[in-house]
């Protein structure tokens, strides 16, 4: 009698369970858990401050893909801040100044290997009651209770944060004078899980390099700079260098070559308008005319102010 071959599983799922608490001393302010096909694979919390893989296969994957591990580490840190601000916003909408409150999120995706069908979901609960859920087809939030209406409107007005959009930056080269460091400046990106680095002949270059911190803008996007000392660099070697902006959720990098003709200096303040041209078309298409005008004004002002921070 022949043994039947076990049927391979064709339907798979990736799920995230996140919980944020306010005023609950017995519970961490944030805890996140990830599962694959219902099996626990990792966690992130205010206690361990990192994404901790548990499954052997997942551990091996992260060992072989260190940048993916770094992405999850940064996302863990971001989630701590994100959920703290979200629960604070809900408390303000509901006029809750004190008390114990809990926000829960269940998100993820499911897919079928045989049919290729996929399904995604993202829903919230607050103090044990259903709250908004995201309709991915209509690209809008649905308030599941009357209490959630104000939160729904706030989230829909902040599409960058609450629709988890990816916003690519304007990347430019800046220099105060010929003897100053050359700054590779990326501005207007979201989220802040990014890397910015110099390359020489296709390899990461760390000598004579100073890396700045990721700084927030008032519109929820971020900026970052990395500096290269070119004082002893022969002009013939400049073509070997390039600056790379890498957004971990996006497979495409933004690369700008080290070229004197591309460097903006204090002597050419009209160059402050360049970021307007570089604003990605995909972003423009999703913005209202009023928001485009405001964004242009913001980028113009940022371009002028950036010269005061050059080294």
From TrEMBL:
InterPro entries: Ig-like_dom, Ig-like_dom_sf, Ig-like_fold, Ig_C1-set, MHC_class-I_related, MHC_I-like_Ag-recog, MHC_I-like_Ag-recog_sf, MHC_I/II-like_Ag-recog. Signal peptide: none annotated. PROSITE patterns: IG_LIKE (PS50835). It holds the Pfam family MHC_I. The chain crosses the membrane at residues 272-301. Residues 169-255 form the Ig-like domain. Coiled coil: none annotated. It comes from the Eukaryota. PANTHER family: MHC CLASS I ANTIGEN TRANSCRIPT VARIANT 1-RELATED, MHC CLASS I-RELATED. This is Ig-like domain-containing protein.
């Amino acid at each position: 009698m022949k043994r039947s071959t076990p049927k391979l599983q064709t339907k798979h799922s990736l799920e995230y369970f996140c919980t944020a608490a306010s005023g609950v001393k017995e519970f961490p302010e944030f805890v996140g858990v990830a599962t694959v096909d219902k099996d626990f694979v990792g966690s992130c919390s205010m206690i361990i401050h990192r994404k901790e893989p548990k499954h052997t296969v997942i551990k091996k994957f992260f060992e072989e893909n260190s940048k993916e591990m770094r992405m999850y580490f940064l996302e863990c840190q971001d989630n701590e801040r994100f959920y703290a601000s979200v629960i604070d916003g809900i408390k303000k909408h509901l006029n809750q100044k004190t008390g114990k409150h809990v926000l829960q999120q269940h998100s993820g995706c499911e897919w079928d290997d045989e049919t290729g069908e996929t399904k995604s979901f993202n829903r919230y609960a607050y103090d044990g009651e259903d709250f908004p859920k995201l309709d991915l087809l209509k690209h809008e939030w649905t308030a599941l209770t009357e209490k959630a209406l104000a939160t729904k409107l706030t989230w829909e007005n902040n599409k960058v944060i609450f629709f988890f959009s990816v916003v690519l930056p304007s990347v430019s080269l800046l220099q105060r004078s010929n003897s100053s460091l050359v700054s590779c400046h990326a501005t207007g990106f979201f989220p802040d899980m990014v890397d910015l680095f110099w390359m020489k002949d296709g390899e990461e270059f760390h000598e004579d390099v100073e890396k700045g911190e990721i700084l927030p803008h008032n519109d929820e996007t971020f900026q970052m700079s990395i500096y290269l000392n070119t004082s002893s660099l022969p002009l013939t070697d400049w073509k070997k260098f390039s600056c790379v902006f890498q957004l971990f959720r996006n497979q495409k990098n933004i690369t700008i070559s080290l070229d004197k003709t591309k460097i903006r200096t204090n002597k050419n303040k009209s160059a402050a308008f360049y970021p307007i041209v570089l604003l990605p078309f995909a972003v423009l298409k999703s913005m209202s005319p009023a928001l485009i005008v405001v964004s242009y004004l913001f980028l113009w002002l940022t371009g002028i102010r950036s010269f005061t921070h050059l080294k």
